[in-house]
Each structure stands twice: as structure tokens, then as C-alpha cells.
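Would you be willing to look carefully at the protein I have copied below?

:::
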Amino acid sequence: MKFRLVCLVFPLLVAQPTLATPERPRDPIALGRYLVQTAGCNDCHSPDYVQQGGNTPESTWLTGDALGWSGPWGTTYATNLRLFMADRSEAEWLRHARSMKPRPPMPWFNLHAMSDGDLRAIYRYVKNAGPAGNPAPAFVPPGQGVSGPVVRFP
């Protein structure tokens, strides 16, 4: 009986495929780039990133977007992080990332869950990229019309 159990379990152990995963970069700027790309920052903060399947020029990453996110809270727009961080120190960024609770759909709780090292790496990547683009449109309160495209939430 013991032998049969080993025979049934062992093939499962050796037959499991191994998934290739990228190595976590050690260089802080490269790590920041990796985190921006894999944590979903580009999904909202980089124009056309999702629509182009991630194939947008890195020079446009994190420059904000004119696509609005509309719901009971009003209409929000993804901030141009390249401009937002341009005049902020690393310490200011860490305080902001730890305390922010912006309107939906920004998943601020994901930033709260990141390590200080990861947040510093994101900051260093953004600062290294430098300021670019224009400010995103301003928040529009509930019930007011918007002129550009929006994603509507119930």
C-alpha cells in the first residue's frame, strides 16, 4: 500500500511544469521600471498602454492619461507621475505613497502594501525618466459633464 502511494505521488512531482519568471532586478532604477511595468502602474498612468498591449514607447510611460474614470465619485484621471514627482523628494514621495487615499479607481492600498525599498525604486525610476508630458485633466465632480472619453462604473 505504501509503495502504491509513492508511485502515484512521485509522477505528479516530476511532471509539474516549471514556469519561467523574470529575475527581480537589483539595480534600483531597473527595479523601479520592473515594478511600474508589473504592478499595473502603466495600465492607467500611461496613455494607450493597455489598448496597445503594453507596446507603447517608454518615453510616454507615466505621463498621465486623458481617459476618464467615471462613477459615483465623479470623474478622475490618472496623474502624470513624471510631473508629480519632478519637484518631490524621495521622503515626500514615501510619505505620500503611505498616506494617500485618492478617489477610485486608483488602488492606493497596493502602494500601502509595498515595501519602502519598492517605493524608493519606483521613485528613482520616475526621477531618472524625468519630467515629460502635460498634466492630466482635473477631477470633475459628480453630475458634471466631461468632454473626453471615459470608462463608466455603475
Notes: The two ends are 58 Å apart (CA to CA). Confidence is low (pLDDT under 50) at residues 1-15.
